[in-house]
Amino acid sequence: MELRHLKYFLAVAEELNFTKASEKLFISQPPLSRQIIELEEELQAKLFIRNNKKVALTEAGKYFEKEVKTLFQDLERISLKTKKIAENVSGEFRIAYIGSIYSAVISDLIKHLKKQFPYVNFKLFEVSTTKQIDALEQGKIEMGIIRSPIHSPKIKSYLWFKDGFSLVYNKKSVEIKSENEILKLKEETFVFFNKDYAPHYHDVLLELCAFYGFIPKIIHEANNINSIIQLVKNGLGISIVPSNIARNNLDPEIGFMELKKVNLYTDVSLITSKDDHSEITQSAVGFLLPQRR
Asked: Parallel, antiparallel, or unpaired for β 91-97 and 165-170?
């Protein structure tokens, strides 16, 4: 079995049409058909159902397609890693982070790395936790900063700090003096993270509100913590944000109240590939870990 057999198989599996697949591969149809037959004979498994009307994957073919796609993703990751090793400490280093991390910390990290590795091009991306995990598994980033939990055999995670929660509100439109008064906010409009963007975080916020005895009226949603803070500042609702954000926001129009009665926290973690032992990655992790927020 050769890589070309797998590439030909994927092309047919994606198109489900031998003519279109052959055009995509820039070969004629008869050789393509022969390659697929050779592959099926070697595997001793029928991968496609073929007749005059259609081409479809068998159950074995569906399984094989999923595994081959994973194989090619791993090959791409290995190729990228090999290239980085050859470049030593030059080239590109990509860091993804969630928007609810205080930006000054990210700036300090880049300054630290730039002093050590002046010829490296550092790139930053604000990305949700779920997309960061996919990107790291596929070798598209070298390091991520996420809100746990994480379940991936390909990723190593380091707990950075545990973050609590704080109520955030516009001081002119909401008057609240203590946690004991939070229940009176049940009729207020809430601004939350979009559930598809941060499902675990969204569920935690609902759990928080349930602890204080109400279901929030979520009218506005956003995928960026700064957008949420701005909506609150504009009087369009109240929200619950990580205490890390509250501690670093000095806007006089916005009030923050840490929710101390509820014992709920989120783990903020650094993630890297389990196969990554580069100097840059070790330096980045080493710089951040002592800085417990």
From this structure: unpaired
Question: Mean pLDDT in the chain?
Answer: 88
- Does residue 293 form part of some domain? no
Is residue 258 domain-shared with residue 272, that is, in the same domain? no
What's the domain range around 14? 3-82
Please name which of 176, 192, 172 lies closest in space to residue 184, comparing C-alpha atoms: 176
Number of folded domains in the chain? 3
Count of positions (residues) in the chain: 293
59-101 confidence digits (pLDDT tens): 999 999 999 999 998 888 888 777 766 655 557 899 999 888 8
211 and 143 in a common domain: no
Which residues, at least 6 apart from 183, have a Cβ–Cβ distance to it below 8 Å?
212, 213, 214
The yes-or-no verdict on residue 112 having pLDDT over 80 is yes
Q: Confirm if 246 and 168 have CB atoms less than 8 A apart.
A: yes
Q: What is the pTM of this model?
A: 0.63
Tens digit of pLDDT for each residue in 190-228?
998 888 777 777 888 899 999 999 999 998 888 888 888
**C-beta separation of 229 from 166 below 8 A:** no
8 A C-beta contact, residue 95 and residue 145: yes
**In the chain, alpha helices (H):** 3-15, 18-25, 29-43, 59-87, 103-116, 129-137, 199-211, 225-233, 243-247, 279-288
Give the CATH number for residue 12: 1.10.10.10
CB-neighbour burial class of residue 177 (10 A; exposed 0-12, middle 13-18, buried 19+): exposed
